Amino acid sequence: MSSDDTVRAREDDTVRAEEIAATFDAAAADFDRVTPDVWGPAGQCLVFQAGLRSGDTVLDVGSGTGASALPAAVAVGPTGQVHAIDLSDEMLERGRVKASERALLNIEFVTADATTWEAPSSVPDAGYDAVLSSYSVFFLPEMDESFARLLRLVRPGGTVGVTAWRETALREYATTFLDALGPHLPQPLPDLTAQMEPAQRLDTPDKLRGWLTAAGTEAVEVRELSNLIPATEEFCWSFVLGSGLRATLAGLAPDVVEQVRTDFMTLIIDRGLHTIDASTLVGTAKVVGFGGPDKLRQ
Ligand SMILES: C[S@@+](CC[C@H](N)C(=O)[O-])C[C@H]1O[C@@H](n2cnc3c(N)ncnc32)[C@H](O)[C@@H]1O
């Protein structure tokens, strides 16, 4: 890559990071409304499967409102510490409020880009005991390189854990929403295939296992978390507004948005969609031989 290309790629990444921050800032309240059904159970499972111990130091990447970071803080106890990083201030602020309500003093929510995060001096030189990331790695630019960098922040023998959507998840739900939305749009939506590609690379147990192994980890464990959520109107609409689907409504007048909502619920009933499939894969592995954050800085 020429130096011009490198500069251009960096500028693209900056623009993308700003867009992600703006999207999740706008979506934060709705996003958090579905935490008890969607993000919370997966975050809790990820923490259990990661086998955190009292006193561990944990980095939670793309922590959002704390679905995995908060249970991680509980698991590592007062002698441990959790750094929860995210691009979106609004998401982080919600996490801070929850941590304060739960009297958790061992967690810090920090506005930071995972692609440039360096472990602060409170982290042992060897690196974090664990890096966790729930539904976030597929947002990172150049997912493989960004993930490899994160693994270098983990001490040798430490743990990495991610969650990702299972291939069937959200398919019928998203299709039904887009079918309801389509007739109300002034022009067709742009093709989203490229945007979905990173998540699709992790969406079966074999793919996720293969990806974690290729990243240089060992003792990979992938579990399937079945999560079929009753398709209530409140859930269905909150999930639209609290997810990437929200962007499809940008620029539509409020009465049109209301009509989309009505049509969406009608289609859900017509198609007999009683549950929303939010099934998830939880992958954990041991990190071997990177030699900690100091190596990365060389
Ligand atoms: C789907 S949300 C998941 C949030 C949380 N982990 C959960 O499970 O509820 C994805 C999060 O990743 C964050 N994110 C995306 N790219 C990021 C980056 N480069 N650095 C830090 N956070 C990022 C977004 O801002 C968003 O809050």
Automatic annotation (TrEMBL):
UniProt-recorded Gene Ontology molecular function terms: methyltransferase activity
Keyword Transcription regulation recorded: no
Matching InterPro entries: Methyltransf_25, SAM-dependent_MTases_sf, UbiE/COQ5_MeTrFase
Domain Methyltransferase residues, every copy: 58-158
Protein keywords: Methyltransferase, Transferase
Any matching Pfam family: Methyltransf_25
Top-level taxon of the source organism: Bacteria
UniProt-listed GO biological process terms: methylation
Protein name as annotated: Class I SAM-dependent methyltransferase
Organism expressing this protein natively: Rhodococcus spongiicola
Taxonomic classification: Bacteria, Bacillati, Actinomycetota, Actinomycetes, Mycobacteriales
